[in-house]
Amino acid sequence: MFESLTEKLQKVFRRLSNQGKLTEADVNEALREVRIALLEADVHFKVVRDFIARVRERTVGQEVLESLTATQQVIKIVHEELVSLLGDGAEGIRFAPKPPTVILLCGLQGSGKTTTAAKLALWLRKQGRQPLLVAADVHRPAAVQQLKVLGQNLQMPVFAIDNSKEAVRIAHEALQFAVQQGNDVVILDTAGRLHIDGEMMHEVRRVKDATQPNEILLVLDAMTGQDAVRVAEEFHRNLEVDGFILTKLDGDTRGGAAISIRAVVGKPIKFVGIGEKPDALDVFHPDRMAGRILGMGDVLTLIEKAQQTFDQKQVEDLQRKLRQNQFDLTDFLVQMRQMQQMGPLDQLLKMIPGLGSQLKDIQFDPKELKRVEAIILSMTPEERANPHIINASRKRRIARGSGTTVHEVNELLSQFEEMRHMIRELNTLQSGGGKGKRKVRLPFFG
Fold this sequence. Notes:
This protein folds into 3 domains: 3-86, SRP54, nucleotide-binding domain (Four Helix Bundle (Hemerythrin (Met), subunit A), Up-down Bundle); 101-296, Rossmann fold (3-Layer(aba) Sandwich), CATH 3.40.50; 304-434, 434 Repressor (Amino-terminal Domain) (Orthogonal Bundle), CATH 1.10.260. The chain has helices at 3-17, 24-40, 45-59, 62-65, 70-86, 113-126, 143-154, 167-181, 198-211, 226-239, 256-265, 286-293, 299-309, 312-323, 329-341, 345-349, 355-358, 366-377, 381-385, 392-402, 406-431, and strands spanning 101-106, 131-136, 158-159, 185-190, 215-221, 243-247, 269-273, 281-283. The two termini are 27 Å apart. Helix 8 runs parallel beside helix 9 and helix 10 (226-239) packs parallel to helix 11 (256-265). Strand 2 (131-136), helix 7 (143-154) and strand 3 form a beta-alpha-beta unit. Strands 3-2-4-1-5-6-7-8 form an 8-stranded mixed beta sheet, sandwiched between helices. The protein has 21 helices and 8 strands.
């Protein structure tokens, strides 16, 4: 995410750090490079112009330039202005005082609108809501069937009228159905086109007039950059949208749409799609996104993902096993599987401050995790609990059963033993013989 932009900005800040005492010329040169980096990232030129002007006004002054931490202050100012550009804070859904809350999703074909409707429904259900998906896209072939399949996979109710070409009728009857069934949120998946046209806008406006939605959210493909901003302007002119959902943000190495859209259109990004899985939809946090763009990591999102994935009882059981030095290969397998549920490992590690640039050229192969899983599953329960009993003949059997080599089995056992040794060392530090006691928390293990 934003890899290209992040790399360029970090290079600018590293050069500033090496300057020692900063001059006005140093700051101006750095801001010129930041300006070029933002333009190359497809950020709207007016947004870049205003952003650079605000940063220059705050940085080119005696108080900053004569400071012993001038570079850090410049970076802090850039971060604050970037947060201000992206939004004042996370903005969620405005729920109706009297249910159901109606959310109208609109957008062009190919933006991921129907998939996003299902992701949003899942997110709402996790918030304790009872959403109803409505198949109101009557133009795209198989759109209704796609939503039905997504709903079935998520065990989510879907309202549809097969073979109907009347989107307004479908939306109107869906609201009556939601009231009868007790659904407190209705998500309307309306039709998109390959491009904006009068017929499309007329139909969406009619659906809007018939349902009086509490939220009109425009779904945009983040990877289209300035095109996404132009589409947002056009939809807002016709519908007065309340906010945006940016999809495919995990594949956007530039960041032009995410950075430009609020400043140009005046409406917030509310959610971002960061993957293909049903739960790959996050609330948009401007401060966290600014930190990621500048290579500062995103620890809060990482913690939230861990809290959503890890069962509290399992965490407590694991903590007890760690304290009693009873952590075995079965526990290791459970933890590995849960970490996989949090998302791709390289994306998770890049949320840790300082690791992003170090991991730039490192490729994480999901097949490696599958190989480790196969090796552990080829062991008997006794071998997983007591790896020290695994002799040469057992290793050969495990290698055959997992489709790996004895060398790979040895490598896994060696790494696991190193980890157990580290845990013993940490437990020793934690106990401290009753004096100088300090608590050590292991990442992902609570």
